[in-house]
Amino acid sequence: MVIIVSGVAGAGKTTVGQLLARELGWKFYEGDDFHPAANIDKMRRGVALTDVDRQPWLTILRSLIEQCLTSREHAVLACSALKRSYRDYLRVNDDVKLVFLRGDFSRVAEQLRQRRGHFFDPTLRESQFADLEEPPPAEHALVIELVHSQRELVDEIKALLQLQSAGFGSREDQ
After folding, report:
1. Which residues contact 126 (CB under 8 A, 6 or more apart)?
2. Order of strands, edge to edge, in the sheet holding 2-6?
3. Residue range 87-96: average pLDDT?
């Protein structure tokens, strides 16, 4: 199984994803690590990425997901996946689960203010919300509201996906 933790920049994808992966004993992948240098440069300068900019990145992420599934490696991937077309592209089969971290503009702004050492220019927050297509019920994504602590968010994700710590307990393993 691959769990994609998605949402706008500053929603807490990396922190929640790392904590979830650590508790499950799974591999964690940071989607930002797979951006081409040109994309990182644009974001650092406060220039919003286009669909064309994102396509090579999404292709790399899809290949990573396919590789994990083929090798039966459980993983958590932190990835914005702002648009339905991106999520559809990344969900190669039913073993890819989508978790969407939903937070309002002010909550995300506060979390971005607290973030250190990331290339993303916080002024791009507006473009993230403008591009965002929240997953409708038909996408079968877990929509997690950012109203609890990161610990509680991870517990909620584990409960909804029926996962247990230490990498055991997913339905596929039983």
Report:
1. none
2. 27-30, 75-78, 2-6, 96-102, 142-145
3. 97
Give per-residue pLDDT as tens, 106-162: 666 665 666 555 455 556 667 777 888 999 999 999 999 988 888 999 999 999 999
Question: For residues 57 and 39, is the Cβ–Cβ distance under 8 A?
Answer: yes
Contact status, residue 74 vs residue 26, Cβ threshold 8 Å: yes
Alpha-carbon distance 20 to 28, whole Å? 9
| Neighbouring residues of 70: CB distance < 8 A, sequence distance ≥ 6 | none
> For strand 96-102 and strand 142-145, is the pairing parallel, antiparallel, or unpaired?
parallel
Q: Hey, what's the torsion of the CAs at 56, 58, 61, 65, to 10 degrees?
A: -130
CATH architecture, range 2-173: 3-Layer(aba) Sandwich (3.40)
Residue 17 CB-half CA count within 13 A: 29
Go through 145-170 and write b for each residue having 16 or more CB atoms within 10 A of its CB, e for each that does not. Answer: ebeeeeeebbebbbeebebeeeeeeb
Could you state, in order of their start, the residue ranges of all structural domains in the chain?
2-173
Token representation of residue 85:
């077309």
